[in-house]
Amino acid sequence: MSAPTDPIAHFRSWLEEARESEPNDPNAMALATVGAGGMPSLRMVLLKDVDQDGFVFYTNFESQKGQELLAHPKAALCFHWKSLRRQVRVEGMVERVDDAEADAYFASRPRDSRIGAWASDQSRPMEGRFELEKRVAKFAARYAIGEVPRPPHWSGFRIVPSRIEFWRDRPFRLHERLNFVRERDSWRNEVLFP
Fold it and tell me: Which domain holds residue 51?
């Protein structure tokens, strides 16, 4: 079998297999950013789209990850599918999705999730759960009739990959590693030692 030449198509095929075997959130990915002091920060987010332009997720721009990505537009992702014994690592520059793309995705979310995007001051301290519940009630009342618009502080990021590595578990820790590196408009691939 020959090595794949299109890492995005290869990723999509692995993601499709994960959707069939992973019990929860096959689109979950660890997102690494870097703060002002150079300290890395890591958390789980959900992939919402992937195409030749990159990997897309959505968040509150006022959150820790939002602030870090706006200040330092570089990130790394890691997908780990335990049931398949595979992982994919992605590194690249980050760009904001356009307003039309963000609006379309926001409109597709459940109404309560859209209200939550208004109610949560994500990553900031709160006095207690009741404070959040009051804010949810306030915004639910404000948008009781009609559509819930996308908040100005809520949108998406696209990680434009410069490197994608596919890892597959093999016996005796002799794993398979296939690395893709972007070179202008094409990809160079190489097999790495485990």
Answer: 7-100+154-192
